[in-house]
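Regression test attached.
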Amino acid sequence: MRESRKVVSVVSTGVANVASVLAAFRRLGAEPQEADQPEAVASADYLVLPGVGAFAAAMQALQTRELVQPLQERIRKGQPTLAICLGLQLFAAESEESPNVAGLGIWSDRIVRLTSQRVPQLGWNRVDAAKESRYLESGYAYYANSYCLGAEPQGWTASWSDHDGKLVAAVERGSVLACQFHPELSGAWGEQLLRRWVEGARC
Amino acid sequence: MLTRRVIPCLDCRDGRVVKGIQFQQLRDVGSPAEQAALYAEQGADEIVLLDVVATVAGRENQAATVRAVREVLAIPLTVGGGVKSIADAARLLESGADKVSINTAAVQRPELISELADQFGRQCIVLAVDAIQSAPGQWRVVTHSGRERTEWEVGDWCRRGEQLGAGEVLLTSWDRDGTRSGYGLDLLAHVRDFIGVPLIASGGANSPQHLLEALQAGADAVLAASIFHDGDYRVDEVKAFLQAAGMEMRR
């Protein structure tokens, strides 16, 4: 390799399981590490915000570790940030899952419950990539969610899936990418997406 | 629209993949990480790893197996075997499992399902249910690898499990497991009416036609072990067959 390996910091709050994310970046030849300090989150070249579990518990975990402000700042500044599953939902103002709990508020939108026959959405679903997407190609992604973003946030580019109704598969703006599906579990398609983000996002 | 899933299952003991009929006459068929990577390469949608452990040393082996598989696997990994507590599940998830499956311990103490779902989210919790036919059109839940029969009617138990927080049901026809005589289709159709969460069929597959029948009977996913381990079929050819038969598959 002509350049040193890229260090990817993965926010680890004890709420989300990060083993799959760490392994995925190791397979890409990057150097993933866990991060749970405000300074580390603020200064990371590449930051991943994973998320499994409930909206309120995840926000609580971020608040306890004083990570809310550094996250908001780096996302607003457009520093390379990848949010996964619940991580995407945390960008919203609030969620039906946890009424009266504030999210990161990057968007004014609200996260809503899936209205499909099968909830949670567990399995592989087709993603139709936005024409102007820098990172996504159309293909199949692995989902594990009961809630979703139903509308495209203003100023962001959305790609879509359909699960008895449309839901946002991923949104992006510059070097910030948020995926409702799990790229780290989405096979070769997901690996290529992660590679395009690591190689294409600008620190 | 969600695709149907084909899920190779690795039965593991002491860090190796084994296969036997109803957990008897076990044969060593390979390394878990190598097998998992091979199936993923062939287009498997997910891997289930069952590793029944009874000792402290066995638990360490199990965690090591999960770590080794996780390192090479870019698709979801469900791990089951001996999960009785939040600590057991946490150890597997930290080792790299994406979901844990619970079976006997959930029947013994159903609140375990809700405790795990509250802690890790319901998408992490797979309720594995073994059923045995007790009369025409009737099935009872069995536990302890089929050795003990419970009073639970299978549909009632699956519905109860969903209410408590199970995100999926992995249903094994104990009458057919390892026999290669096809999935228990009546059982699948019966349970389908009781639950809204995804239903994974297990036990008895011997051909792509058997997998198709299970999907037609209402399964969202099909789990199989021996037809893949013995090299009779590749995952990609099975998926191509299912696709040609009209099932939506990930390509």
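Expected vs. actual: identical. The interface with chain A takes residues 1-3, 5, 40, 45, 67, 70-77, 93-98, 119-124, 167-168, 196-198, 220-221, 250-251 of chain B (CB under 8 Å).
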